[in-house]
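Sequence only, no structure available. Ideas?
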Amino acid sequence: MPAEPSQILLQKHLTLAETHRAHFRYEKALQLLDDALHMPNLSPADSNSIHLRQLAYKIEAAWLYNRLDAEFAALHSQLKVIHADALAHHQRPQVADALFLTARLHHFNLFEAKSPDLDGIEKRWIEAYSCYHDLDDSRGMAESLFYHGLLYQRFRADHEAAYGCFHRARNLIEYQPYPIELAEILRHTGYVYHQRGDLIAAHACHEQAVAYLNHSGFRVYLPLALYALGMVLMEQGRLDEAGPHFEHGLAVAEEAPPNILHIGALLGLGDFHAKTGDLALARDTYQKAQTIADALNATRSLKMTADKLAALPQTSV
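Reply:
I predicted one. Tokens follow.
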């Protein structure tokens, strides 16, 4: 029986690695990519692409388990090496991907950074977008625009500038097969609508984001989308519908070891219990979130849980 063509075998490895990543199995995904690097007749461009995918998974896992501070220097160094190699060999797609991942690494590190360089990271997103634009890579352009918008939304509190980026990003890929990217764009567009007070539009965005993630089978961002949908339903007074979304989000987060998704899911569920008047259950849920945040040394999450616990009315014994 003849051996499979190398590109077909490589694609099988990449697809299976992506499936493992989608279900929080980062070690298995990275091992498959490592195996792919040892395939015969691998081109230099393919080799760099696989290395970049490995780094993308490592960055995502480091964000998920709040290890970016410890792993930042090593990840940054590896990205510089691959960027330089891709540049030397005129591998333009790999150059763009290396710039994108470097920007993403710096962006993720903002969540725990004491002195964030917002201007520097904004320049990185503009540079990544420009490289993808030169390649006519709509997915790369959309992702760069999305993170640029996220910078405005999360760290500059400029929701309208964020909306402009999200709108452009969505237009680039709305009718293309990128459900994970579309789900994230829709989730954060929903937050803008929520901030404007347009709960109907926010609900539509969050519901669509959940549908995209369910259809794609990508579990990692699903708790975030379910949290967003639950929050807007709760604000609409649709508590019977909101509760199951918070519970589902926590169940998905629990498919992995304790991580920052657990914290967000527990905070959402705690808010739901507080809203329905079950203060004891709300306190217990917030305390579970606090325990995980403490174990992960997630300082921002620790402050959030402490604030929520302090805001609960004291029950008499």
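The chain is about 80% helix and 0% strand.
Hope that gets you unstuck.
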